[in-house]
Amino acid sequence: MAASAPLARGGEAASPPPRGPGSALQRWFRNGSFIRWIGLGGALIPTLMLGFILVVLVVKAWPAILINGWGFFTKSAWHTGAQYGTSVHSHGITYLSGQSYGAVPQIVGTLETSAIALIIAVPVSIGAALVVVERLPKRLASVIGMFLELLAGIPSVVIGLWGVLTFGPFIANYIAPALSHIPIPFFQGDVGHGEGLLVSGLVLAVMVIPIIASTARDLIRQVPILPREGAVALGMSDAETARKVTLPWVGSGLVGAVVLGLGRALGETIAVAMVCGVALGQVATNLYAAMITIAANIVQNLDTVITDQLGVRTYAELALVLLVITLVTNVVARLMVRRVSGTALPVGRGL
Amino acid sequence: MSIQADPADPRSGQVPPATALQADAAGFGGTPSANGASSLSVVDLTLSFGPRAILSNLQLKVAEGRVTALLGPTGSGKTTLLRTFNRMNDKVTGYRHQGDVLLDGRSIWHSGIELMSLRRKVGMLFQRPNPFPMSIMDNVVAGVKAAKMAPRNQLRDIAERRLRDVGLFDAVSGRLKDSPFRLSGGQQQLLCLARALAVDPDVLLLDEPTSSLDPMATEAIEELVRTLVPKITVVIVTHNLAQARRVSDSTVFLNKGRLVEHGDTKQLFENPAEEETARYVSGRFG
Prior knowledge:
The structure holds two protein chains of two kinds. By secondary structure, chain A is mostly helical.
C-alpha cells in the first residue's frame, strides 16, 4: 500500500506518526469502530431482510388482497376459473371470470398439523433431553445426541418418502383403527390409506423432535447443579426436581426451542406435500382425512398458475398469511414466556 | 489408626458393626430423643470414589440436639461424609460405602427407608445459596408442597412463619411473589435455610453455609444455627476455625481420610489431645 510508506518513515524518526489515511484505517480497527460497524450491520441485516420480504409480498399480493377480500379468510372453495370463460380486468390485472379463492382449509390445515406435531414432539423432546442429560452415562448420551442431530439433518424429501411408503400405511393399518374407537367425533370415521391430517402431523413431529430435543438438551445441561441438588436434598423426586427446578430454570429458552420447532412445522413443505393427500377446498372432517397446508399448496400448485395474474398473486397472499402466522405465534410465545417466568427469572445472583 | 472417643460418650468410636445389624432388625422408627432431634452414628464407615478411599474405618457419634463441626483441610473427606448423611452421594459415579450410618439407631441404607423421607428428615444447606426459580413464597414451601405436608390454604402461613423464624419476613413481606434472585446473597441463604426448616427436619447438614457470604450475613446465619439446637441436630462443615469455635458444641477433626480427634469444641481448640489437631487449630498447617 502506497500510503504506508510515509507512515513507516515517520515511525523511524521517533516522532508522532503523521495522520495519513493508513493510520486512520488503523485507528478505525484499533478503537473498535470496525467491530461496532460489523455488529451493527449484522444486527440490521436480518431485520431489513424480514422487512424486505414483507414489503415484496404485500406489493405482489396487493391486487389479490383487494380482489379476494375477506372471503379469502372465510371461504373454503378454491376455484381457478373457467379456462374458456371471459376475462375480467380490475385492480390493474387481468384474470378469468369465476376465479375465487378461499384459504380457510389451508390455514386450518397448517395450524392443525403443527398442533399435532407439537402435542407429540414437545413432551417427547423434553423427556428425551432430560433423560439424556440426567440419566444416561456420558458416552451413551453423546451417541444418542449424535443421532438426534443426524435426524435433524435428514432431508425432508427423504422423510416425506418414508412417510408415504412406510409410516403412512403403518398408521392407517395399525394406529388409526385403534384411535377411531376413541369417542370423540373428530377421531371417528374412515381411517383412510395413510395420507392425511394425522400422518402429516406425525411426520412433522418426527422432523420437529430433533430440533426441540437437541436445543432442550443443551439448555438443560446449563442448569447449575446446586439448585437441582437443593431440590433433591429437600426430598423432591427426580420428576419434581425436573418440573419445579430444572425446566423452569431454562423456561424461556425452552419456549424458544418450541417456537423454533413450530416455525419448522408451520413452514415445512415437501414432506407434508407428499403425505397430506392434497385436498384443496375442504377442511378435514376427521383426523384421517386428506387435507393440505399453505406451504404444501404453494409447492404443489404454484407452477400451474405462473401465467395466471390473479393466481400468482393469490399465492403471494398465501405466503404472506403463512409469514404472518409464523410471526404472530413467535410473538405470542415470547409474551407467554414473560408472563410465565417474569417473577422468577434467575437474574445474576446466587447462580 | 488413632481414633479418639467422644469424651461425652465413652461408647462412641467403639460401636461394633454388629450393633448396626441389631439396630436394623429392630425396625424403622428408632428412638429419637424426647425433644425430636435425632442421633447420628457412624459405624466403621469407609467411603470411596472408584479405587480411592476418601474416608477409612470411621467411627463417630454425633450428639443429638447439639451442633457438631466437621473440621479439616481440603480433601480430608468432611464434605463427602456430610453428603453421605442424607445420601446425596448415592448417584455420584464410583461412590461406594462400607460400614454404616445409623439415624436414630437405624441404617440410612436400610431397604425399608424411603429416600425422600430420609432427606426430609435430614435437611441440608449448601455452600452457596440455591433458591429455586419460583417466587420467594413458593421457595419456602417447595418441600412442604412436594411432600404434601400441609393443605394448600395453609402454605402462606407456613411460609410467613418460617420466614419469621429466620428473620427474613420483614425484608420480603411486600414481595413474597417476587423472584428470590433479586435478594442479596445473605438473604438468599436465609431463604434457603427457611426452606430447609419448613419440612421439619430432625437433622440439619450445613456445608460451609457462609463461605460465600459477607460478615454480617455470616453472623445472622451463625446466630440462627445456635437457635436450632436442641430441637435439631446440626452438623456443620467449615473451613473457618473461628466459626467452628463460635457455633459448635463439639468438633470433629478429620485429616487425610481419618478421624483424628473428636471432642468438646472448647477442649479441642484449647487443649487438643493430638499433635496433628494442635497444629491445625493453631493455624500451623491446612
